[in-house]
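Researcher: Sequence recovery benchmark, item below. Answer with residues only.
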C-alpha cells in the first residue's frame, strides 16, 4: 500500500515539531509544506515552501496538518474540506463557536476525518489515568483539579490564556471523566499589558456531578502541568511534564491515636507511582490520526470534541466578563 501523502501548513515553533514527526512516521510521506511567512526554522528540508493551502492541495496530499495562528483555522480548514482533504488542526479548533461549528460541519458533511491537536490527551500519564478510571480503580469520581502555570510565551499573540492553555484542561477533563461540562464560573486577569487575559481561575461542573477547578496563567516563574482526580478510593495525580502518574489511596488501617481519629474524613494510605511507557505525545497523536485516515478504529480528538471545548472556553470568558455562572 502506498504511503499517505501529508502536507503541513504553518512552519513556526509547533510546525517544526509536526514536520519532524511526520518525516519519521511509518506509512506517511511529507510531500508539501507551506507558510506565507517563509521557513524560519528550516522545516522544508529541501521541499519547496508554498505560500498557501492551495499549494498543498495542488501537490496531491491526502491530509494536512494545520499549525497556523488560530485566526486562520476556519479559512484553511474549510478550503481543505472543500478539496476533500483530511485535516489535523492545531488547538483550539477555531477562534469562536460559530467558526468552530462551520469547520466541524464542513468535514462531517463530506465524510472526512477531522481532528484537533489537543495533545495532552496523548500524554502517557493521562492515557494511563483514563484507562484506570474506566476500569473503576478510583470508584466514583468526585473532583478534577488542574494547574497549568508558567512564564509568558512570546509566540502567542492571537488568543489569551483561556483559548490557548485552558482549552487543554477543558478537553482533558471531559475526556478522562467521559462527562461534558454543564456550567462554569470564572475570573480572569490582565497583568502583562496585552489585549487578552493572561490568568484565569475556573470552577466547573460536569454532567455526572463531578466538580472541577482549573488554575491557568502565563505569569508564574515556574512551569506546572498537574491534574488531580479525587474519588471514592483516593486520588490520582498526573504530572504531564514528566508523564508520571501517582495514586494516593485512602487509608484502611484503623487509627488508634484519639486526636487524629476524631477527624471524620479519609486518612492516608499507600502511595504508588506507576511505571508506564512514555512515548512522545505528539508522535502518538500523529499515529492515531494516520490510522483514522486509514479507516481504523482509533481514539482521536474529533472536531465535535474541539467544538465542545471552544464552547466551554467561550462560556469561561463570558462568565468572567459578566460575573455570573454560565451554562454550557
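Model:
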Amino acid at each position: 500500500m502506498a504511503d499517505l501523502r501529508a502536507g503541513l501548513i504553518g512552519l513556526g515553533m509547533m510546525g517544526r515539531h509536526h514536520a519532524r514527526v511526520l518525516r519519521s512516521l511509518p506509512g506517511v510521506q511529507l510531500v508539501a509544506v507551506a507558510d506565507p511567512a517563509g521557513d524560519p526554522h528550516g522545516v522544508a528540508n529541501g521541499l519547496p515552501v508554498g505560500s498557501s493551502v492551495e499549494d498543498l492541495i495542488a501537490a496531491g496530499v491526502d491530509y494536512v496538518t494545520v499549525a497556523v495562528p488560530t485566526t486562520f483555522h476556519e479559512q484553511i480548514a474549510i478550503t481543505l474540506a472543500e478539496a476533500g482533504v483530511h485535516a489535523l488542526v492545531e488547538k483550539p479548533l477555531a477562534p469562536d463557536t460559530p467558526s468552530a461549528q462551520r469547520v466541524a460541519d464542513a468535514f462531517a458533511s463530506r465524510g472526512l476525518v477531522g481532528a484537533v491537536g489537543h495533545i495532552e490527551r496523548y500524554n502517557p500519564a493521562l492515557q494511563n489515568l483514563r484507562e484506570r478510571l474506566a476500569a473503576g480503580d478510583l470508584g466514583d469520581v468526585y473532583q478534577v483539579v488542574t494547574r497549568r502555570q508558567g512564564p509568558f510565551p512570546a509566540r502567542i499573540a492571537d488568543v489569551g490564556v483561556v483559548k490557548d492553555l485552558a482549552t487543554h484542561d477543558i478537553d482533558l477533563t471531559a475526556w478522562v471523566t467521559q462527562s461534558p461540562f454543564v456550567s462554569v464560573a470564572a475570573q480572569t486577569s490582565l497583568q502583562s499589558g496585552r489585549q487578552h487575559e493572561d490568568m484565569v481561575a475556573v470552577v466547573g461542573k460536569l454532567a455526572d456531578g463531578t466538580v472541577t477547578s482549573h488554575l491557568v496563567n502565563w505569569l508564574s516563574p515556574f512551569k506546572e502541568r498537574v491534574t488531580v482526580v479525587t474519588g471514592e478510593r483516593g486520588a490520582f495525580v498526573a504530572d504531564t511534564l514528566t508523564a508520571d502518574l501517582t495514586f494516593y489511596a485512602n487509608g484502611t488501617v484503623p487509627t488508634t491515636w484519639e486526636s487524629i481519629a476524631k477527624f471524620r474524613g479519609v486518612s492516608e494510605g499507600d502511595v504508588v507511582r506507576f511505571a508506564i511507557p512514555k512515548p512522545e505525545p505528539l508522535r502518538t497523536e500523529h499515529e492515531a490520526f494516520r490510522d483514522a485516515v486509514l479507516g481504523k478504529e482509533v481514539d482521536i480528538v474529533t472536531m465535535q470534541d474541539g467544538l465542545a471545548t471552544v464552547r466551554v472556553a467561550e462560556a469561561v470568558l463570558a462568565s468572567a466578563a459578566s460575573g455570573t455562572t454560565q451554562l454550557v
